[in-house]
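User: Run a structure prediction on this.
Assistant: Running it now.
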Amino acid sequence: MNILSILQTILASANIIIIGYGFYKFLNKPHSTLEEKTKELRKRVDEHDLKIKEIESALKQGNDRFRKQDDTNEVVLICTLALVDFELSRCAHDGYEHTADLLKARDALRSHLASK
């Protein structure tokens, strides 16, 4: 056997191996692409889960703040009603008769408090 035929056999074998490796990579391409996409999607889902938890936490804190504000508003309304009643009794004691606006304000405030 001469050197030329040995080199042709080696080259043919190397070509078969290279073609086989390329075919193997070609067949595995969809699987590797799918794995990459799955990793990306999993990462995005984890990021969205974290954002959702942060939003829920912020909403809970906001709701607590609104609840506190509602309590404060109720106290302010009750104190305002007490001041209007005091002013009406003071006007009655001093003989001041122009209290129609105070009476309307008191009635409006009482109806508002009663509707709550």
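The two ends are 107 Å apart (CA to CA).
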